[in-house]
């Protein structure tokens, strides 16, 4: 994958949009990307503002984005333990369903 940024001649109008896109790259490339951004007087936002392109080290990204094999059980256990039906009944309201 190749990312090519193009100058649009003015500020980006985000309108009501928000979001973030992350590109994973080898960790040893991150300092070069940061240096190029600084050389070109591009903004590096810290903290992030909700409209950004992130470059992250591939090694850490792969580790953090692994599927949790216990996720379904954890979610089901939490929903089973949820007492919201009791709360809705106590307040004479019907619990919404998905």
Describe the structure.
By secondary structure, the chain is α+β, with helices and mostly antiparallel strands. It has one domain: 2,3-Dihydroxybiphenyl 1,2-Dioxygenase, domain 1 (Roll), CATH 3.10.180.10. The protein is built from four helices and two strands. It has helices spanning 30-39, 58-64, 71-81, 84-90; strands at residues 19-25, 51-57. A two-stranded parallel sheet has the order 1-2. β1, α1 and β2 form a beta-alpha-beta unit.
How are the SSEs ordered, and which strands pair?
Elements: E1 19-25, H1 30-39, E2 51-57, H2 58-64, H3 71-81, H4 84-90
Parallel strand pairs: 1-2
Protein name: MGC76089 protein
InterPro entries: GLOD4, Glyas_Bleomycin-R_OHBP_Dase
Organism: Xenopus tropicalis (Western clawed frog)
Summarize the structure.
This protein is an alpha+beta fold and 98 residues long.
Task: Name some characteristics of this structure.
14% strand, 2 strands, 98 residues, two-stranded parallel sheet, elongated
Shape field: elongated
The first-to-last residue Cα distance is: 38 Å
Number of helices: 4
Radius of gyration using CA atoms only: 22 Å
Main pleated-sheet profile:
2 strands, parallel
The percent range for strand residues is 5-15%
Give the topology string: H per helix, E per strand: EHEHHH
Q: Show unreliable segments.
A: none
């Amino acid at each position: 994958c190749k990312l090519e940024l193009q100058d649009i001649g003015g500020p980006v109008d985000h309108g009501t949009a928000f979001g973030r896109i992350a590109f994973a790259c080898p960790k040893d490339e991150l300092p070069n990307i940061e240096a190029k951004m600084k050389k070109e007087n591009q903004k590096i936002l810290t903290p992030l503002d909700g409209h950004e392109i992130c470059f992250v080290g591939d090694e850490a990204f792969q580790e953090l984005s692994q599927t949790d094999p216990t996720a379904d059980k954890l979610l089901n256990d939490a929903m089973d333990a949820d007492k919201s039906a009791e709360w809705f009944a106590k307040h004479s309201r019907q619990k919404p369903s998905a």
